[in-house]
Amino acid sequence: GGVGKTTTAASFGYGLAKEGYKTCLIDFDIGLRNLDIHLGMERRVVYDFVNCILGECRIEQALIKDRRQDNLHLLAASQTRDKSVLSEEGVQQVLDQLTAKFDFVVCDSPAGIEHGAMHAMYFADSALICTNPELSSVRDSDRMVGIVTSKSRRAVTGALPVRQLMVVTRYQPDRVANDNMISVSDIEEMLGVEVAGVIPESEGVLSHSNMGQPVIMGECEASDCYDDLVQRFLGQEVEFRHLDAKPKGIFSRLFS
Questions:
Q1: Total-model pTM
Q2: Which residue from 15, 118, 192, 223 lies 20 to 30 Å from 198 (Cα-Cα)?
Q3: Cβ–Cβ < 8 Å for 154, 162
């Protein structure tokens, strides 16, 4: 947990919608709903993901349309139910209805490797795996890469493998240069998975989340990098930014 999955899901989904793709975001974190806050929709939730699974409402009743971006919708998680209500059949039924309506369905997985996370992973065609440039986080990501590779529906049925991409969050080039943080190239080598996004540490991430705005809407370094992530996912070749430490000025060198 704490690697920026929900922050990334909000910006990634918004970015796809901005590119003209009908996009639905689903919050799989049953009982600990947060994606609605990142999108500024917390006061608009009436029905949720669990209501849809249990047949208590129609999909159309539960979907919340973003007021800033017509192509983006949210299916919120329940705050009052337990994760045990998720079933493979119920989740598949909801996803089948959504994939018929949307170009992309982005599933925001909860922390850890538990019921909600396994369901979010099982049906994936592509997986964005978030990690911090710290050894413990990279090790957790390595375990998730293995689970997606071996236990997804595509793996179980012998279909083409899930497309896996890494997103490195909270990256600090200065610390990497001082050998206090793992570099992007080392992460890529350790996990054997292509890095599609590198999001630098930025105060703008917290401020946008508190305002209910996806970070990609802002003008900070992290906003640009989330936009680059979306472009790379869609097949564009985009040069990585903010990987190298900024050169120090003369006074910084004298007093550091």
A1: 0.92
A2: 118
A3: yes
Q: What is the per-residue pLDDT across 176-230, written as a single tens digit (0 to 9) for each?
A: 999 999 999 999 999 999 999 999 999 888 888 888 899 999 988 999 999 999 9
Q: What is the pLDDT of residues 42-93, one digit of tens each?
A: 999 999 999 999 999 999 999 999 999 999 999 999 887 767 788 889 999 9
State CA 182 to chain mean position distance: 21
Find the length of the chain: 256
In the sheet where 195-200 sits, what is the strand order?
A: 126-131, 163-171, 195-200
- Answer whether 83's CB lies under 8 Å from 30's CB: yes
The DSSP string of 165-198 is EEEEEEE-HHHHHTTSS--HHHHHHHHT--EEEE
Token pair recorded at residue 189: 């080598």
> Any bridge partners for residue 171, and if so which?
200
Q: Bridge partners of 164?
A: 127
Q: How far is the C-alpha of 82 from the C-alpha of 64, rounded, in Å?
A: 22
Contacts of residue 107, defined as CB under 8 A and 6 or more positions apart, other chains included, come to 9, 26, 28, 120, 123, 124
Q: Bridge-partner residues for 168, per DSSP?
A: 131, 198
The torsion angle over the Cα atoms of residues 238, 243, 249 and 251, rounded to 10 degrees, is 150
Give CA–CA dist 117/50, Å, rounded: 15
